[in-house]
Structure formats: structure tokens, C-alpha cells
Amino acid sequence: xxxxxxxxxxxxxxxxxxxxxxxxxxxxxxxxxxxxxxxxxxxxxxxxxxxxxxxxxxxxxxxxxxxxxxxxxxxxxxxxxxxxxxxxxxxxxxxxxxxxxxxxxxxxxxxxxxxxxxxxxxxxxxxxxxxxxxxxxxxxxxxxxxxxx
Length: 149
Hints:
- This protein is an alpha+beta fold.
- It contains 2 helices and 9 strands; from the N terminus they run αββββββαβββ.
- Strands 1, 2, 3, 4, 5, 6, 7, 8 and 9 form a 9-stranded antiparallel β-sheet that branches.
């Protein structure tokens, strides 16, 4: 019996010590997608170079909505007259974003609808600050400025 205890006891102590040491290690936080499961309303087309803003027309709560879905990296968008669905890729470290496979209905756009869709298709960078999302395009000379809903 003493031989059995003398063989098991050091292994048990080592195992308990390993659990204590490993349990005390803090796991790294995963980089989480800050856009997932969020909804945004376009408030301005921004000319960054000239520091000017343009409110999108028509100025309606029903237009110019961007929603990043919970599942996969999918999104939906509403322009002036059309509904879209697409996918996006995001790199949190470099703040880069790309919207791809944006497909939807084909009703003639009114107001700034065409500009909105074209801009979404060319965004390459993003920032989020105080519930404001900015999607940059045209070598960061322009951006779409959204307010969180």
C-alpha cells in the first residue's frame, strides 16, 4: 500500500499543480467583429478631403440602412428604392473592410441611391467611434457616415 501511495502521490501533486498554474493563465481575448449584429442609418456622404457633408436624398428613415447580420459575415442594405443582401470581410487589426456579392432588387434608384450602392461596393476601410460608423472609399477621400440604430 505504501508503494502505491508513493507512486501516485507525486503524480497527483504534479497534476494538481499543473491545474493551478494553467487555470491561473488568462486566455487572450479573441478579436470580435464589432459590426456583427448591428444596424446603421446613413446620415452623410462625407468628402473627407474638403471636409464637407451631404445629407442623403431622399431623407427618409426607410432609406439607406445597413445591417450586419449575426450569421456568417452577411449583411443587408436598403438604398432609396432597393433591398440588397451581400457578404463582407473585415480585418480588425488593419480596420479594413470589403463588401462583396451585393445583389438585390432592380427598381430605378432615386436621389442618392446609385451613389450609395456604388460607394458600398468600393469601401475598403472603416472606423467606429461613439456609435458612428464611417466606411471609407476612393482612397479614403470619401466616406459614408452612419449612425447606429
